Amino acid sequence: MVHLDALVAPVFGWDEDSGEDPPWHAKTRDTLLWRGSTTGSLFVERNEAKSNFSQRARLVRLAEGNSNMDIAFAGEAIQCEEENYCMRLEQMYVFDDWQKSEEANEYCYVIDVS
What we know:
The chain is of the alpha/beta class. It has a domain at 36-110. 24% of the residues lie in helices and 18% in strands. The chain is built from four helices and four strands. The chain has helices spanning 48-51, 55-63, 83-92, 101-104, and strands at residues 29-36, 69-74, 95-96, 107-110. Strands 3-2-1-4 form a four-stranded parallel β-sheet, covered by helices on one side. Strand 2 (69-74), helix 3 (83-92) and strand 3 form a beta-alpha-beta unit. The model has no long low-confidence stretch (mean pLDDT 85).
């Protein structure tokens, strides 16, 4: 096992106002949300098999094609040993824009992956 699969979200690292969280019945998106960066594992071509078992990479792969999940890496690939490998990650995985808290609060389900 590369990481523990169930971790507590570290609230001390939160640096953004979470905005107004609507009541459950007023949320408009009945899907699971996650956006995050490619941190948590050093992505290295020579160690690709191990890198692709990071929690975040596994989650993005799991969600591919699942209409009940709005899950993607956000922004651009980072924490790669070689720049060209970051470009390769952007071709291998789904990437999308970062979301503001107001938009994220519209989702019924949000997962935290450290």
